[in-house]
């Protein structure tokens, strides 16, 4: 059994590619938040990773206790391993370079000065037993004869300097220096090369550059970072032995290289492919992140809560099947008093009770709680999951939820939503929940200020595969909602369904009692007629073509309006009824419109009632007292709409929304319904 297989078996997981995947201690058996990979330079040759709060050292201790890893023993004192390198005494050190025939052709002179600095000089033989300045030959590898004499299957070690190469040679290895290598590296052709970098940034850079050059020449090129070195140290300070180095090299050369997990196409060929499944087709794919966007007050929160209740109760949502299962609804917008109120109304609407939902639907309010962000971003842009993310993950495991709502992104995402890399990293963090815990995530977000269907930049839409858009779709009926697929990779974009907000729940008109639906339709038509009358009135007054409220007048408003395009085919009677309603609620009045300077008189007529409008022109008001409006039907001071109670509808507006909402139409006849969310 391989080392990875032993680790997987001991921790209750399995091997996937070059990793042993297993549950993080304290998590469910299905969790795969931790994994082990083989690393020849790591202690015990194993690296432990955990993405959901696990302690890698504690996991290693558990593996030692189970006999998978060797028992840990304290390191010997550093002085027993290798004395700290002492500063060199002032003087010279010579490193001779031989050609392929073993003839010395040049030497490098290291000169250590009393102040601790050093310089290097090249010299070459003068032919009479002495030395001359300069190299005097082309560059060539240090200890070249050793390399040429070694069999092709013997590894060649490359250290950063001649003295280090000499130490390796003293241990019995074939070694050379990375310093002063020639451009032609064919001496390493078909050989195995092991690079030992100094433990600093420069060493890593030199080793990486050399490896990139040797990859196309050598049979294999491996970089081994010696374990236990402090910053700036190298093979000279390393406390290991020749056997230790040989073991590191063997492990690095024989263990598989860690790569991305590759799909097994042979397995695919032997199994039947399956289409994407949906929690609620076609809007919500299973085990995916779905972003729900829309303006404030379009009932996004109510939508997610009602879908969650339908999943928990095994009920349909507006006629659409919802896969039954536990649901978790987390909101940072509303407190539990509001959640209680809404859920009671939703339960009644879908034909269930709070008792029946208990244990299947789980509600969490984060309102007023600090540090709810699921991740933070470092100065270098790297993302770090937070304790809140660990709490979220643990709560999902504890409740067994398969549908999770996060309301909303503004409270949970602490990054820059215009930064695509940060948004994508955050969404991938949520996708981890989908993959590890088999959950579907509904993420609620507002539209951006320009009215696009997403928040911030397009990064949110690019990062997810599905987007649901909530909108108001009928100016005459403020309770009508339209849900559509703004982005859909698993269904047809543009799919939509219309319904209404009614008594704090979302319902289809055909599901309402007949008398309630009739009353709602009548109110909607009344509001539409009122709006059409006001549009016609505004157009006529903009044209300075005043109209009258008197039926006998030639410019009787309903008679004039019914032929206008703005009337949208409304007949004279309905326009007259609208005029009467608008008079009674103080929305229109007879008053001053403009001064006809050619005739020298004020023009009066019907106008929309606006506080502070003059009854006469300034010129006329200086000459005489203002006349009465001549509006016998007007009820002075009544500027409030007439609210029409509809059986079964809300007796008042919804609790204050935490979203920005448009001001309601002050002149609408209302069913007293409307809502936040």
From TrEMBL:
<feature type="region of interest" description="Disordered">
    <location>
        <begin position="69"/>
        <end position="92"/>
    </location>
</feature>
<feature type="region of interest" description="Disordered">
    <location>
        <begin position="602"/>
        <end position="677"/>
    </location>
</feature>
<dbReference type="InterPro" id="IPR027417">
    <property type="entry name" value="P-loop_NTPase"/>
</dbReference>
<protein>
    <submittedName>
        <fullName>RecA-family ATPase</fullName>
    </submittedName>
</protein>
<feature type="compositionally biased region" description="Polar residues">
    <location>
        <begin position="626"/>
        <end position="641"/>
    </location>
</feature>
<dbReference type="Pfam" id="PF13481">
    <property type="entry name" value="AAA_25"/>
</dbReference>
């Amino acid at each position: 059994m391989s080392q990875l297989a032993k680790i997987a078996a001991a921790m209750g997981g399995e091997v996937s590619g070059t990793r042993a995947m297993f549950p993080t201690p304290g998590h469910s058996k299905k969790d795969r938040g931790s994994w082990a990979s083989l690393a020849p330079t790591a202690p015990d040759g194993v690296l432990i990773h955990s993405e959901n709060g696990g302690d890698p050292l504690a996991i290693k201790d558990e593996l030692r206790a189970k006999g998978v890893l060797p028992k840990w023993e304290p390191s010997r004192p550093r002085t027993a391993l290798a004395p700290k390198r002492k500063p060199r005494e002032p003087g010279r050190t010579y490193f001779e370079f031989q050609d392929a025939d073993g003839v010395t052709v040049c030497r490098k002179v290291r000169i250590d000065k009393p102040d601790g600095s050093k310089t290097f000089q090249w010299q070459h033989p003068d032919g009479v037993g002495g030395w001359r300045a300069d190299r005097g030959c082309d560059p060539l590898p240090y200890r070249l004869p050793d390399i040429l004499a070694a069999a092709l299957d013997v590894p060649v070690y490359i250290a950063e300097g001649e003295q280090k190469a000499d130490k390796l040679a003293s241990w019995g290895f074939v070694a050379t220096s990375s310093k002063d290598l020639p451009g032609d590296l064919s001496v390493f052709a078909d050989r195995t090369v092991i690079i030992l970098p100094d433990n600093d940034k420069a060493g890593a850079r030199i080793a990486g550059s050399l490896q990139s050059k040797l990859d196309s020449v050598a049979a294999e090129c491996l970089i081994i970072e010696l374990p236990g070195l402090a910053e700036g140290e190298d093979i000279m300070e390393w406390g290991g032995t020749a056997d230790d180095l040989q073991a590191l090299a063997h492990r690095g050369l024989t263990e598989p290289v860690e790569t991305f997990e590759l799909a097994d196409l042979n397995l695919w060929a032997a199994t039947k492919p399956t289409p994407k499944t949906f929690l609620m087709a076609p809007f919500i794919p299973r085990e995916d992140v779905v972003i729900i966007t829309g303006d404030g007050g379009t009932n996004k929160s109510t939508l997610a809560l009602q879908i969650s209740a339908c999943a928990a109760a095994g009920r349909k949502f507006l006629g659409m099947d919802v896969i039954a299962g536990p649901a978790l609804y987390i909101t940072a917008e509303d407190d539990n008093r509001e959640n209680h109120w809404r859920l009671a109304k939703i339960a009644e609407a879908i034909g269930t009770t709070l008792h029946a939902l208990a244990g299947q639907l789980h509600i969490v309010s984060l309102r007023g709680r600090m540090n709810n962000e699921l991740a933070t971003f470092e100065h270098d842009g790297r993302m770090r999951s937070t304790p809140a993310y660990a709490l979220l993950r643990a709560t999902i495991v504890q409740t067994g939820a398969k549908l999770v709502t996060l309301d909303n992104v503004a409270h949970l995402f602490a990054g820059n939503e215009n930064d695509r890399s940060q948004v994508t990293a955050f969404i991938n963090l949520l996708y981890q929940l989908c993959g590890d815990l088999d959950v579907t995530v509904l993420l609620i977000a507002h539209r951006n200020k320009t009215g696009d269907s997403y928040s911030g930049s397009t990064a949110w839409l690019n990062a997810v595969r599905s987007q649901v858009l909530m909108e108001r779709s009928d100016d005459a009926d403020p309770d009508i909602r339209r849900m559509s697929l703004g982005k859909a990779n698993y269904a047809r974009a543009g799919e939509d369904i219309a319904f209404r907000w009614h008594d704090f729940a979302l319902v289809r008109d055909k599901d309402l009692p007949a008398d309630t639906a009739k009353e709602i339709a009548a109110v909607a038509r009344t509001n539409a007629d009122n709006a059409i009358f006001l549009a016609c009135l505004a157009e006529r007054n903009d044209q300075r073509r005043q109209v009258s409220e008197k039926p006998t007048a030639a410019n009787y408003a309903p008679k004039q309006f019914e032929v206008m395009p703005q009337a949208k085919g409304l007949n004279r009677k309905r326009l007259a009824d609208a005029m009467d309603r608008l008079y009674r609620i103080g929305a229109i009045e007879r008053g001053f419109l403009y001064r006809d300077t050619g005739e020298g008189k004020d023009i009066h007529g019907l106008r929309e009632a606006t506080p502070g409008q003059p009854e006469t022109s300034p010129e006329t008001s200086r000459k005489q007292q203002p006349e009465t409006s001549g509006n016998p039907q007007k009820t002075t001071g009544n500027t409030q709409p007439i609210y029409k109670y509809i059986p079964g509808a809300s007796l008042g507006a919804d609790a204050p929304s935490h979203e920005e909402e448009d001001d309601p139409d002050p002149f609408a006849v209302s069913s007293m319904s409307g809502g936040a969310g």
